[in-house]
Specification:
By secondary structure, the chain is mainly β. 9% of the residues lie in helices and 37% in strands. The strands form 2 sheets. It has a 6-stranded antiparallel sheet, with no helix packed on it. A 5-stranded antiparallel sheet has the order 7-6-9-4-11, with no helix packed on it. The N and C termini lie far apart (77 Å).
Length: 170
């Protein structure tokens, strides 16, 4: 005995576009193909950024709740030993190799060796420094206090913080 059932309509089918209109999936794919800032077709080191003595940085998102940067650190260079009073940061190493020097809970500086795909969180108040063993691309996501930086030492570059201007604001 064969039963005949009328096809049921799901909410996805009910929301489908009319003939000739692109689907939501097609619209998303089209948007991604036109705007793909992290795509592999354009290496980050070829993008524009604010020059730094150690490489460059690009502030690509700043909202009231978070900020995001791309850092490019040249092999053999380092970012000053620093801390932030309020700012918290998380880092993802996209390429290269780094030594991340970070203050532990006891106040001692420890080295953490990072490979591509490794990530690290830096709570507010913790001293930290980055040393590039190879040319390295780093994604940084932080709370939005982009001017909150206290350099403890910047032995190599002898810089002092400029209280009126963040380096990514050039």
């Amino acid at each position: 005995m064969t039963e005949s059932h009328a096809p049921s309509t799901t909410s996805a089918e009910a929301a489908s576009p009319k003939a000739g209109e692109p689907s939501t999936h097609e619209l998303r794919q089209d948007a991604c193909s036109r705007f793909n800032p992290m795509g592999s077709s354009t290496p980050l080191r070829s993008r524009s950024g604010v020059p730094q003595p150690w490489g460059w940085e690009m502030l690509w998102t700043l909202t009231p709740r978070y900020a995001s940067k791309v850092l490019f650190i040249r092999r053999g260079h380092e970012i000053a030993l620093q801390f932030h009073r309020a700012k918290e940061e998380s880092f993802l190493l996209r390429s290269g190799r780094l030594i991340f020097v970070i203050e532990d809970r006891a106040g001692d500086l420890r080295e953490i060796w990072l490979e591509p795909g490794d990530s690290l969180h830096v709570p507010a108040g913790r001293r930290h420094r980055v040393i590039a063993l190879e040319d390295s691309e780093v994604l940084e996501v932080s709370t939005p206090e982009i001017d909150d930086v206290e350099r403890v030492d910047d032995l190599r570059y002898h810089r002092r913080p400029d209280p009126g201007l963040h380096s990514s604001a050039h």
